[in-house]
Specification:
The complex is a heterotrimer of chains A (130), B (162) and C (189). With 130 residues, chain A is mainly α. Chain A has helices at 11-34, 44-47, 67-90, 97-120. Chain B has 162 residues and is an alpha/beta fold. Classes of the chains: A mainly alpha (130), B alpha/beta (162), C alpha/beta (189).
Chain lengths: 130, 162, 189
């Protein structure tokens, strides 16, 4: 049975969105107004990073291997692809051959990309980075 | 290893540098002149296997002519024997060779001796105060200060039995 | 069996109450909340620190005053508890830790060494941390018993409950900090 979704049915979503935005904006603005910026104590020593009472030694940032970042980014990409699979999978039985071939083409593009990054060595976990 | 053999060999090598010998608290002690200390320590380390520096400290005898002293304790790990070397320098020229090139452990110990007695170790890579604050301008363990700080205003004599 | 006689309930601050509500001034309410949830920074250096460990244990339990969660970072602490001998080399460290705490902040000097240098009247020991930070409560003792530390903590709670809300912006507060050598508005070190 078909159900027609009117635009007015989405009003609660709109209200929720505005409430969330309002909370964020009000909290940020009101705390900024409440704070008395001119009279409070602000010094360099007070606002520097905490180093157990002595001067800061060295940098907290250090370089780390890029393979962690690569894996995370590739996960995001392929996860978005999987998201597109879901509506296709739900309606797979009622769809015809054209749907299947379209999805095959879609997936083929991704597989080509996957093959590319595999060949480039993004999945070589133990390889030494030059 | 008997100390008499060691003493004989030391006397043969450094006749005039060794000033006196005694044995206090079971540790064989030599008082040596301060110019030869590095030679003697190097000889003991390389020739006689005194390869472990147990301690390096300072002392101040105000009634002697050469007031400030540096005491070295060396240990022969092979024969399990200890030896103590004492050298004295005057307060006017408190220079002694540093033995950091022979024993790396002497680095901080010499800094501490400098910090508390003011003895200048020639050849030390970084001779600055180690335990006291950097801006302190005297050497606390020298016996030339009154016991209490006379400039304190908050100590009431009535409570301290004076 | 009536255990009610053994325990006393904390008094409510002055306010107007009716059925189902209690109205008081904001600073009293905030003071009540703050004083019963103080997060101490235990700057424990020596023997008094061990007594503090005993105070935090189950027998004397400082946690029932709300101080269960100790913070070793000044950013999240209300109360700097200096317990133990502070050497002159350590003095700028104590001052920097105090500066890095966020207002409102209080300091308790536990023990004789933190209050006045204790028995160590010597070239290397700071004769009392009130030479470098403003102290609110001094707890004498060498070391003070846990009951004394708790007594000092309760006096801090009294101070916290009565603290005016805008104190940190007042010129007297800034003048007090300046008198300890703590700069209040410059960005030089």
């Amino acid at each position: 049975m078909e159900r027609v979704y009117l635009a007015s049915d989405y009003q609660p979503v709109l209200i929720q969105f505005f409430v969330a935005m309002a909370f964020v904006i009000i909290v940020m603005v009101v705390t900024h107004l409440i704070i008395s910026t001119r009279k409070r104590v602000r010094t360099l020593k007070k606002e520097e990073n905490f180093e157990c009472g002595i001067d800061i030694q060295g940098n907290a940032r250090f370089p780390f291997s890029i393979k962690y970042f690569l894996i995370a980014i590739l996960f995001v990409l392929f996860d978005v692809e999987v998201i597109f699979f879901y509506p296709w999978a739900v309606n797979f039985k009622d769809a015809d051959w054209s749907a299947f071939l379209n999805m095959l083409l879609f997936m083929g593009i991704f597989i080509f990309g996957f093959f590319y990054i595999y060949k480039k060595g993004a999945f070589d976990w133990n390889k030494e980075q030059e | 290893m008997e100390y008499t053999i060691l003493l004989q060999e030391l006397k043969n090598k450094f006749e005039d540098k060794i000033l006196s010998v005694d044995e206090a608290a079971d540790i064989f002690t030599l008082t040596v002149s301060s110019e030869a200390i590095k030679e003697i320590v190097s000889y003991l380390k390389e020739q006689q296997s005194f390869i472990y520096l147990t301690d390096l400290c300072g002392i101040h005898y105000p009634e002697q002519e050469k007031e400030l002293g540096v005491i070295y304790h060396l240990h022969n790990l092979v024969a399990n024997k200890r030896i103590r070397l004492k050298t004295f320098v005057s307060k006017a020229h408190p220079q002694i060779d540093s033995i950091v090139s022979l024993f790396s452990g002497a680095n901080w110990m010499e800094r501490e001796t400098f910090d508390f007695y003011g003895i200048d170790f020639v050849g030390h890579p970084n001779l600055i105060r180690i335990l006291n604050v950097e801006y302190m301008d005297y050497h606390p363990m020298r016996k030339e200060y009154p016991l209490e700080d006379a400039t304190r205003l908050d100590k009431d004599d009535r409570f301290f039995g004076r | 069996m009536s255990d009610k006689d053994k325990y006393t309930v904390v008094e409510a601050p002055e306010g107007y109450s009716g059925s189902g509500f209690f109205a008081t001034t904001l600073d009293k309410a905030v003071g009540l909340a703050r004083k019963n949830s103080m997060w101490p920074l235990p700057f424990a250096t020596s023997c008094c620190g061990i007594e503090f460990m005993a105070t935090m244990g189950a027998n004397y339990d400082l946690g029932r005053f709300g101080a269960e969660r100790l913070s070793f970072s000044p950013r999240q602490a209300d109360l700097l508890m200096v317990m133990g001998t502070i050497a002159k080399k350590m003095a700028p460290v104590v001052q920097q830790i105090y500066e890095q705490m966020a207002e409102p902040r209080w300091v308790i000097a536990v023990g004789a060494c933190a209050s006045s240098g204790g028995i160590f009247d010597t070239y290397s020991v700071l004769q009392g941390i009130d030479k470098v930070v403003p102290v609110d409560v001094y707890v004498p003792g060498c070391p003070p018993r846990p009951e004394q530390i708790i007594d000092g903590f309760m006096k801090i709670q009294e101070l916290v409950g009565n603290e005016p809300l805008r104190r940190r912006y007042s010129p007297e507060y800034k003048a007090m900090l300046e008198s300890y050598g703590i700069k209040t508005d410059s960005y030089d070190k």
